[in-house]
Specification:
There is one protein chain. With 72 residues, the protein is mainly alpha-helical. The chain contains two helices and no strands. The longest helix has 53 residues. The protein is rod-shaped and about 80 Å long.
């Protein structure tokens, strides 16, 4: 029994028919997983950076706009 299983696994790993399709599927899955992980990290950083710059711009623009509108 054990010998038969070893032989089947051995022939399975030596068989190269159709291996390119499987390889492409595995690579595609790995790229998708990596892309999602990177996007989650980069997306959080990007949202934080845009929020910080928005706050900074509001602090610079709003007092000037308020002073001009109130002083006129």
């Amino acid at each position: 029994m054990s010998r038969n299983i070893k032989r089947r696994f051995g022939s399975f790993f030596r068989d190269t028919r159709g291996i390119t399709t499987v390889e492409y599927a595995i690579v595609l899955a790995l790229v998708a997983i990596a892309g999602v992980a990177i996007w989650q990290k980069f997306g959080t950083t990007l949202v934080t950076a845009v929020g910080n710059s928005n706050t900074s711009m509001n602090n610079v623009v709003m007092p000037a706009t308020t002073a001009t509108a109130g002083g006129g």
